[in-house]
Amino acid sequence: MRHRFWHTTAAQLKMTFRNRIALFWSLAFPIILMSLLGVLFGSSVSAGTITVVDLAHTPESQQLVTALVHTDGVDTKTGTDAASAESKVRNGDRDGALVIRPGQNGAPASAVLFTSNTSAAQAGILRGIVGDATSTIALREAGGHPPIAFRSQSVDSASLDYIDFLLPGIIAIAIMTSSVFGLSTVLVDWRKRGILRRLKLTPMPLWEFLASRVTASLALTVVQVIVLIAFGRLAFGVHIAESAWAAIPVALVGCLAFLALGFFIGSMVGSPETADAVANSITTPMMFLSGTFFPVASLPAVLATIAKLLPLYYLASGLRDATVRGLSFSDVASSIAVLLVMTAVLAGISLRTFRWEPAN
Amino acid sequence: MDAIQVQGLTKRYGDHVAVDGISFSVHQGEAFGILGPNGAGKTTTLEMIEGLRKPDAGDIEVLGMPVWPDPMPVQARIGVQLQSTALFDRLSARELLELFARFYASEDPAGRARRALGMVGLEAKQDDYAARMSGGQQQRLAIALALVHDPDVVFLDEPTTGLDPQARRNLWEVIRTIHDEAGKTVVLTTHYLEEAELLCDRVAIMDEARIVALDTPAGLIASLNAGARVAYTDEQGEHVLYAHDAQAAVLEVLESARAAGRPVEGLSVKGPSLEDVFLNLTGREFRE
């Protein structure tokens, strides 16, 4: 019966891709959303915030610090501990750390700029600004050695450009929307209109029909991931990591979890309009609470805790780890595991409560 | 061999008895009608035979196989057009038919789809979505879907309800083709007396969950034991009487009217129909 399954899946795909409104929400809307947010917030005026730690305390080093504080292109905070400044870069709290150490045995003081390696463009701008400031001071010094030797060093960090941060969140929202609505509203509509009842008369088991629907949704998910990553790369220069392929398994499992949520709604609700309203009232708050548009860390503690109960949080962070953070498959395995558990629980409940025919 | 055998079939919904212990059989190759007013239990009966509703009591065999507890072997050999036609929105008639042919794992789905379209006269509409078709065309597509796997028995549940007279006549032609040319056993429900009389070899008249009569249309009418139906109106209202001798009956009406000095209007004489059979059996007029 393998033939029948694939032909049914092909029919499901035809129905999906002929539904212009559903296709708008699956592909065009995420692209519009990303373009809007990317244009509004993607290119910040400042190249970032750096911590300056002056351990040399020479007149030149103090001049350099003053010069940086007055530079428009970068926000400068002063610090006293080199190790903590560097770890803030690593955590993503700062975009760079400049550590000025006194020179040994008459050698010039050294200034080392630590930048995040996840954002090469931003690091380049910071290097340029700090390098300029350093050489200006060197020129003022009459002859001899430059008073400060400048060098930069990149560190692994969790910091991302906003657009890099945004892209995986947008992909997660696109998958959530098309999966939840692709099974809740559609299933309720088919049941209400008696289409499921008509199918029940054919020898094709209904689980096989549902499986073909799930397979078509998974295929749409792969299309969404590829189209949206390509758009982010081409239109906004999003830095796509080499490990981005690991986004596919995360996306597929995320699709399953949200299909299960759609199935859950579809099994609880009688009319397509109600299904639509319920799906909207679940997905819309989740969109803002799950670290898709801004990091969960920026939420109040209570909301941040709630975020970690939401499937979209795991889908978005799994996609972010794979697509732009450059983390490997084993790092996203925990997100995958959480999503699989959610799928099993929701699908399990729904299978018990699902009805093929409308209530009389 | 009988295509369908039904024994003591019963269905209850709470206190309401929808089908009350009915028994009948349908012969192979027959066009069998279940006629009755709305709410008589026709659709419930049909859906129990099709394996969609589980009976509370009674036995059903279709093509020698029991329908319950597992209706699947029977469902593979019957074709069903349900009362409410519902189809996927974004598949063309041809795509729908090929998909349904594949559900049955039939050979040559494209050829089967083409033949089913031909049988219901929808070739010109093969690339249209069902939503863009008229009510009559949608109903013909639903019948084509019931035929696509070449079933032995075809069930049509109120196939012409809601259609205009022209579309209804077109559909009658389709049903005749299925029965006369393709030689299928056809079971249909209807609340149109005329339809049952025209299309069916035998008719079961259902009223209030029971079968009140079962015979050929001619046999049912003959059971009235009357050659004519005489109807007229006078100042006391409308009168209908059944008579062996139409001539004598009319003369009697007119003579007694003259004797009593009451004018008679709208006098008509015609052969009795199934409507008269229903009136005679239930004491109520048939309401469509």
Give a description of the structure.
The complex is a heterodimer of chains A (360) and B (288). Helices cover 65% and strands 9% of the residues of chain A. Chain A has helices at 2-18, 20-41, 59-69, 82-91, 120-140, 162-192, 195-200, 206-236, 247-268, 272-289, 301-307, 311-323, 329-353; strands at residues 49-54, 75-79, 96-101, 109-116, 148-155. Chain A has 360 residues and is of the alpha/beta class. The longest helix of chain A is centred in the middle third of the chain and has 31 residues, at 162-192. In chain A, helix 6 packs antiparallel against helix 8, helix 6 packs antiparallel against helix 10 and helix 9 (247-268) packs parallel to helix 13. The two termini of chain A are 34 Å apart. Chain A has 2 domains: 2-41 and 161-353, no CATH class; 49-155, 3-Layer(aba) Sandwich (abc type-2 transporter like fold). Chain A is built from 13 helices and 5 strands. A 5-stranded mixed beta sheet of chain A has the order 2-1-3-4-5, sandwiched between helices. With 288 residues, chain B is α/β, with parallel strands linked by helices. Chain B folds into 2 domains: 2-219, Rossmann fold (3-Layer(aba) Sandwich); 225-271. Chain B is built from 10 helices and 13 strands. Chain B has helices at 42-49, 72-75, 93-103, 109-119, 135-147, 165-181, 193-199, 217-222, 246-260, 274-282; strands at residues 2-13, 16-27, 31-35, 57-62, 65-66, 78-81, 153-157, 185-190, 202-207, 210-215, 228-234, 237-243, 265-270. In chain B, the strands form 3 sheets. Chain B has a 6-stranded mixed beta sheet, with helices on both faces. A 4-stranded antiparallel beta sheet of chain B has the order 2-1-4-5, covered by helices on one side. A 3-stranded antiparallel beta sheet of chain B has the order 12-11-13, with helices on one face. In chain B, a hairpin with a 2-residue loop joins strand 1 (2-13) and strand 2 (16-27). The longest helix of chain B is centred in the middle third of the chain and has 17 residues, at 165-181. Chain B is globular, with a radius of gyration of 22 Å. The two termini of chain B are 34 Å apart. The mean pLDDT of chain B is 90. Classes of the chains: A alpha/beta (360), B alpha/beta (288).
